[in-house]
Amino acid sequence: xxxxxxxxxxxxAQIDGxxxxxxxxxxxxGDVLEMGLGNGRTYDHLRQELPDRRxxxxxxxxxxxxxxxxPAEDFLEGEAEPMLAQLARDGHKMALAHYDFGYGIKExxxxxxxxxxxxxxxxxxxxxxxxxxxxxxxxEQICGPDTIAPDRYLFYRAV
Length: 159
Known about the structure:
Elements: H1 3-24, E1 31-35, H2 41-49, E2 55-59, E3 75-77, H3 80-89, E4 94-99, H4 106-123, E5 124-132, E6 140-142, E7 154-157
Parallel strand pairs: 1-2, 1-4, 2-3, 4-5
Antiparallel strand pairs: 5-7, 6-7
Helix pairs in contact: 1-2, 3-4
């Protein structure tokens, strides 16, 4: 599979996963958390699918498309650990989180996801959903939509 085909597969998985998760959390209280803004495409889709939810964004720096800049009060710039700790301290709970941090080096990305997993768990509403490209630990892994290959995107429920 070429890198271009892999990207198409990833983007389709993100769209299908977010749409599926948005339906699943419809009756659950809580905000949304985008971890890794990047260009802002996923954030833009979250805004479209969950227009009535507050969407928090964590990233090391703001470097997205101008149409995808989150409100200043919802953008937490810096390393993930202190930003997740701040959300937890302030009592914010997430019904949905999308984990998209990464360096592009598989071993490093997996290690970061595992290191951040307990912090992510502290900001999740019980029953909240986490979508991730990386394996996370300490969360209940669940099956996502049938349109997504199990190894392409991972789905978790907070306990």
